[in-house]
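help with this record:
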Amino acid sequence: MKNQQLDKRRQDATPRGVGVMCGFYAEKAENATLWDVEGNEYIDFSAGIAVLNTGHRHPKVIAAVERQLQSFTHTAYQVVPYESYVSLAERINERVPVEKPAKTTFFSTGAEAVENAVKIARAYTRRPGIITFCGGFHGRTFMTMALTGKVAPYKIGFGPFPGSVFHAQYPNALHGVSVQDAMDSIERLFKSDIEPTQVAAILLEPVQGEGGFIPAPAEFMQALRTLCDEHGILLIADEVQSGFARTGKLFSMEHHSVKPDLMTMAKSLAGGFPLSGVAGRAEVMDAPGPGGLGGTYAGNPLSVAAAHAVLDVIDEEQLCQRASQLGQHLVEVLTKARETCPHIAEIRAQGSMVAVEFLDPQTGKPSADFTRGVMQRAMKEGLLLLSCGVYGNVIRFLYPLTIPQTQFSKALDILSRALQQEAAAQ
């Protein structure tokens, strides 16, 4: 079956609302390499949108799932529980950067984790309000669409959304938003939209994902913690995209001196199997009553087995350290590329959570066209890249942290050529 034939079938059988980036179809994958149905080979710098920090089909993950397949595949944890769920929660509790004791519960998707974090926060505080940030992305369900601070393509045509959700500014020095500007915007919400005694939580990504891989400044995180403590508000860190070694730490919040009250996680937690979680201070996590949390597939045993293997691989292969090393190498290449690519306005990095933002050198405005051009040139040479940013003018890099060094260097050579060629073509 050819890619073109499959794409015609896709268009006939599936709705256009499910956007698809690539015109080719996967047949097999291994670590950082994908092969399509026509035998073409690609270096995967998308990793299933940050799901595969341990690579495609890591042998230890596959072996763990195969072992679990021989025991049972489903009981519904709320009906018949199993030890692997409990021991995974114990492992997460030990490592999350929240005040101890901690507790963890599992779900299937990142959006589910975020929704349940909101439920827990409201149950604990007995307050309705949630403050989140412009540019943030938290999911595609109705509550998480409301929380998301980016309209296109996530919100168009789907309103109205749940209430008591308010958006503040997120610090972005390149676009003229300081930490003080962001904090002032929260104070304006307190004056114009909701009193602080009615706010259950402030929710943010410590590194905005879809918003452009923008790390929260340390000063901002400290100011948020102080503000939350002052008003009895919970601080929720959404680590769905930034978690599990991507930033050079197991969690991005470990780069900060403050601790959140709740954390959400998903994506690379289970190495390609659907699993998410909410972790937090025990007294907060215990606020909902029995039956208030859960889901039929929540904490699926196959995914839980995979997650145990993922944590083992991160430790055994020192993926936090490798994330820092790979990220530094990539930043050096991008910095060198600035010499011949005036469109590069900013390079942002926390470990291997790296992004490059493009502005038109003549107008200073975001350049989504240049971004697409670079991605298309890279894809023609067999390198898959993803864009992000409110204006679609950012390329984010999400290679598996297990990628072989020679393949990583090859990918960076392709990237350098794509940047140089697109700059010359403008």
Observations:
- The longest strand covers residues 344-350.
- The first helix runs from residue 3 to 13.
- The chain has a mean pLDDT of 97.
